[in-house]
Amino acid sequence: MAADSGSGRFLYPWEKAFSRIITPFEEFIQKQTTSGMILMGTTIIALALANGPFHATYEHIIHTSISLSVGGWSIARPLSHWVNEGLMALFFLLVGLEIKREIIVGELSNIKKAALPMFAAVGGMLVPALIYRLINSDPALMRGWGIPMATDIAFCISALVLLGRRVPKHLMIFLVALAIVDDLGAVLVIALFYTGDLHLPSLGWGALILLILISLNLGGIRRSLPYSIAGFFLWFFLLQSGIHATVAGVLVAFCIPAKPRCEPAKFSKNIKDLLWRFDNMTRPGVTTLSNVRQFSLLKDMKDGLCQAEAPMRRVENTLHLPVALLVIPIFALTNAGIKFSADLITHAASHSVAVGVFLGLVLGKFTGITLFSLAAVKLGFATLPLGMGFRHVAGVGLLGGIGFTMSIFISDLSFKNDPEQMIIAKTAILMASLAAGILGIGWLFFVHWKDSRRQMVKGAFQHGV
Questions:
Q1: Is residue 46 situated within a structural domain?
Q2: Residues 194 and 410: beta-carbon distance below 8 Å
């Protein structure tokens, strides 16, 4: 260990170089663009496993039964089921926290700002569902109407990032707000329409746990542990009740407090006081390891930081890494592995489920988002942000057809007892998401090129005049 000259820090030989690598990586991985890139990579791996020499092993692993037993009680589910109803609860917890934050302090906190993305999201959910239902009148296939309603925020943001400064900065804000409302709609659809036969005793216990969570919030409990314990039991009872267990994640998210214990001014005063005392206890050459009083002050500073930080935001920041690095990749690995064949593609191309999903995502999202946004502005309910035109809204409408994560998730719920229809639906989701991404990026590139040429012509004309 050596002292870093002039900084008062002690660094081990590899510590400085390692920090230069890790710190930017941590900042990068927490962005939605990274989630999109990781999701794309794991999807490719899943497709390679499903269509390669390890197909049998891959299928065996994802369908392996895993059981939990306590005394005489036990529950057994395939690995894919534990991923979809267990691990994905963390994803929905993060989604719930993002929805709550946007409602409290984000783009959805102001009705004037929220009106446009809310109208766009509602249109982007209703029209795709309507298209699917018009194409699929068979009651056995109708359950898939929720599949084309969802938009994958990670992939959509990744697409806009690729365009960089070619799109107005407000377009990203519009897309994020739209996707948040879309996620909320998808959660409500799952909770209300994709629920099995209800087990009332378990549902009653779940309601009791939810009341406990609400009481923790109202009682000013800001520690994460009580919410984690109660949240686990809520998830468990919902798993038994017939309501999809991932809904527990959203319910817990809305119960986690949004207000910090300490106001900014009080926090600043306390930290300055602690720092003053810390400085007065500093002794040359003596670290906090042997200076017990300084170590105690550091603990007080850490507690002060926790009190000044909103619990909701702290949990959200904590979840970003595991959700991006573990939950989403594992979900993609267990759900996106479709074994393609000429017969499957031919069959899917003419199957009403595939046609409904594909047209719902590509045509329905574009039509719903664009027309409902246009109606909201023309009727005076909303205004377009500065620098945005309906040509940009149309581009977002095309990108909204990238359904992927939530669409695949709903396809599992829709056709859990019909593997053939599930595979057809997932094939259509992949094809539609690819088509929507290409069309959306291509259209926004074209809009930027056309706007640039118009500006050049206008500049040349003014210069000539």
A1: yes
A2: yes
> Do residue 44 and residue 145 come from a single domain?
yes
The residue type at 91: F
pTM higher than 0.85: no
Instruction: Answer left, alpha or beta for residue 380, where phi above 0 means left and psi between -120 and 50 means alpha.
Output: left
Residue 87 DSSP label = I
The token duo for 113 is 């700002």
- Kindly state whether residues 341 and 387 are assigned to the same domain: yes
Residue 283 lies in a domain: yes
Residues 269 and 341 in one domain: no
Q: Where are the beta strands (DSSP E) in 57-158?
A: 65-70, 73-78
The terminus-to-terminus CA distance of the chain in angstroms comes to 70
CA angle 324, 326, 332 (to 5 degrees): 85
The CB density around residue 455, as the number of other CB atoms within 10 Å, is 10
- Residue 282 structure tokens: 């500093």
Q: Where are the alpha helices (DSSP H) in 219-337?
A: 224-241, 247-255, 264-280, 292-308, 311-322, 328-335
Tens digit of each residue's pLDDT (9 = 90 or more) over 41-87:
888 898 899 888 888 898 888 888 888 777 777 777 888 888 888 88
Nearest by Cα to 120 from 367, 431, 406: 367
Contact (Cβ atoms closer than 8 angstroms) between residue 377 and residue 384 = yes
